[in-house]
Amino acid sequence: MEREWMTGGTAAVDGVMIDGLGDVRRAHTTRVRVAVDGPVVLAVVGDCPATAQEVRDALPAVRAGRWGELSRWAGSYWVVADDGRQRFVCGDLAGIRAVYYARGEEGTQWATQPGLLGRPLVTDLPYLAARLTAGEHHWPHRSPYEEIRMVPGGFGLLLAPGTPPQLIDISGVEPVEELREGADRFGRALTEAVQHRVRAAGGVVGADLSAGLDSSAAVVLAAEAGDVHAVTYTDGYTSGEDMAFASRVAEHTGIAHTVDMGVDKQLPFSFPAGQPTGVEPVLEAAMFAMDTSYLQPVRGLPLHLTGHGGDIVLDASGSCWVRLLQEGRRREAHRQVVAFARLRNTAPGPYWKALKEAAVLGRADSLERAAQALERRPIKPEAAVAGWSWCRLGAGASWLTGYGRHQVAALLRQAARDQQPELADEFDQWAALRSVGASARGWAPYGGTLGIRPVYPYLDNQVVRAAFAVPAVARRGLVAYKSLLRAALPELPDWLTSRRSKGSFTAQRIAGLARHRDQLDDLIASSPLAEGGLIDPAAVSTSRSRRPEDRAPR
After folding, report:
1. Cβ neighbours of residue 280 under 8 Å, at least 6 residues apart?
2. In this structure, are residues 91 and 461 in contact, taking their beta carbons and an 8 Å threshold?
3. Are 83 and 63 in contact (CB under 8 A)?
4. Which tens digit of pLDDT belongs to each residue from 348-378?
5. Residue range 448-469: average pLDDT?
6. Using alpha carbons only, what angle is made at residue 427 by residues 426 and 428, rounded to the nearest 5 degrees?
7. How far apart are CA 94 and CA 436, in angstroms?
8. What is the model's pLDDT at position 106?
9. What is the number of helices (H) and of strands (E) in the chain?
10. Of 255, 281, 422, 551, which residue is least crowded by CB atoms under 10 Å?
11. Helices 330-343 and 348-376, interaxial angle, to 10°?
C-alpha cells in the first residue's frame, strides 16, 4: 500500500507533477484536486470531499493571501497554493499530514516525509533525549533530524523568493461562550467527518471498537451511513466491562464484529521479526504484534475508522483551572478543583497547590526551573505530584548522564524563549493535539504493512476547530464525562453517553515490559542515546526494577 506523499523544491524523488505548480510532485496514488486561473493555483491533496468547483471558489482567498481559509473543508489533506509571487503549503491542524522543510543553497525545500528532502537523515540525539525527559510538546517546530524543521500543527509555511520561510497561523478557532453554544457545530462536523468517508468508500469499512465513547460514537455514526466491520482486542489484562460495552454497541448498530482474544506473545514490546521501522519514534511501534493480530479481519478494506484523538477534543486537562487562576478567577477554580478531586477520592490540597504553582510560574519560568533542576544534580525517580504542570520531568530524566542533563537543560531554556501560547489551557490542548497527531503519523508505516488505511475523524480540522471553540473549562466535566459528545449528538443511546468508566491498557503494558525485559535491556544498551553518552543504561535498568506503582507518571 503506497503512502501518500508530496514534495516541493527538490528533485530527490520521482513522482507525478501537479498542474500549475512547477516542481511540486506527488505519489502516483495520492488524490489531488487542482484549480488554476492564470498564475493563481490551488491544489488540495489527500482525503477531502471538496468538489472541483468548491476548490475553484477558493481561488480569491489565494489571491488575497487569506491562507487560513484554505483548510476549512472536511477530511485530512495538504494544501498547496501559489499566487504567482509566493507559495503557501500546510497540512492539518493535528500534524498527521506533516510538512518538513530545510534551507539550502537553492532555497527552501519541503516535503511531507523527511526522507524525501534529498539530504542525509542525521538523528538529533539531544532533542530525542529532551523528548524522553520532558515530552515533545516544548519543541513543536523540531524534527528528529538535524537541520530539518517541521511546520507545527495549526501553522502553514509561506515561501517567497529571497526571503526566509515564514510560519503562518491557520488555527482559525472562533470561540463560543459555553458548551451548549458550540455543541451543534461540533456534532455536525464530527458527523460529516465520519459519514462522508463511509459513503465515499462504497463498501464495507473497518473500525476500531474499544468500547470507549470515542470509538463507539464513531461506529454508531458510521453504521448510519454504510456497512461496518468493527474489531475489538481483549486479553487477560484488559477490561471485561469494555468487552461488554463493545458487544452492546455492535448489537445496537447491527454491524459485523470480530473479537480477538490476545495471547502473551502479542503483549507490547515484543518487536517481532519483519516489523517495519518508521522515521519517528512512537509508542505504537511497541504494539505491532497486537495490531497484526486484531486487525487481520479488516485488512484491505477501503478505510479503517478509529477514535484516536477523541480524548483531546472531547475533554480537557487540569490546565483549564490554571487558566482560571491566570485570569484571577480563584474562587471559581477552587470550587471546581475541590469538587473534581473529592469525586475521584483524591486529596484536594496537593492538587490545588500544584495548580496554583503552575499559574504563578507560567510557561517560561517552569521550563527554567526544570533546566536548573537538571543542571544541579542527577534526578532521582520519585512519585509525581498530582496536578497539571507546564513541564514535568518524567522517569527518563533519571536516566540522563551529566552530559545528557546539560544538553536537555539547554534545549529547555531555548524552548522557554520560543513563542507558544501562555494561557495554560491553550498551550495544553495544542500540545496534546500535536502529540496524538504525531502518534497517528508515526503509525502510518505499520498500517501500510498491515494493509490498513486509518482515518481519524476526531482530528479533522473542522472537528478540532469546533471542539477548541468551546472553553476548555466547559469540556472538563466534573460529574458528566465528555459532556460535549452528549450535547452534540443527543441521538446517541443514553447507556453509552452516560458511561463514566473506561478500561486501561496499563496492566497489559507493564506485563509486556516484564516479559521482554532482557530484550529491552539489549535495545537500550545499543541505542544511539546510550552510545552518544546521553543516557546511562544502568540507570534505566535500575529505574525499571522499581515497582510500577512507585514510578512517576509521564
Report:
1. 143, 144, 438, 441, 442
2. no
3. yes
4. 999 999 999 999 999 999 999 999 999 999 9
5. 97
6. 90
7. 7
8. 77
9. 21, 17
10. 422
11. 100
Sequence-ordered strand ranges (E) for 281-440: 304-305
Cα-atom radius of gyration of the chain, to the nearest Å?
23
What CA–CA distance (Å, rounded) separates 233 from 249?
15
Instruction: Report in angstroms the alpha-carbon separations of 205 from 77, 215, 302, 351, 506.
Output: 20, 14, 6, 44, 29
pLDDT score of 66 more than 60: yes
User: How far, in Å, CA of 488 to CA of 552, rounded?
Assistant: 36
Q: Which residue has the cell 458510521?
A: 222
Q: What is the pLDDT of residue 385?
A: 64
- Mean of pLDDT values over 168-189: 96
Query: Could you tell me what percent of the chain has a pLDDT over 90?
Result: 84
Residues in CB range of 16: below 8 A, 6 or more apart: 25, 26, 27, 28, 30
C-alpha cell at position 533 = 553518552
Amino acid 226: pLDDT? 97
User: Side chain identity at 451, as an amino acid letter?
Assistant: G
Residues 6+ apart with CB under 8 A from 345: none
- What is the mean predicted confidence (pLDDT) over 137-163? 96
Whether the CB-CB separation of 70 and 42 falls below 8 Å is answered with: yes
Which strands make up the sheet holding 25-26, listed edge to edge? 16-17, 25-26, 6-8, 107-111, 100-104, 149-150
**What is the C-alpha to C-alpha distance for residues 356 and 329, in angstroms, rounded to an integer?**
12
Q: What is the DSSP letter of 526?
A: T
Return mean pLDDT, the chain: 93
Residue environment code for 428-464, b if the CB has 16+ CB neighbours within 10 A, otherwise e: bbbbbbbbbbbbbbbbbbbbeebebbbbbbbbbbbbb
Query: Measuring CA to CA, which residue among 414, 453, 215 is closest to residue 314?
Result: 215
Rounded to an integer, what distance in angstroms lies between the CA atom of residue 535 and that of residue 401? Answer: 5
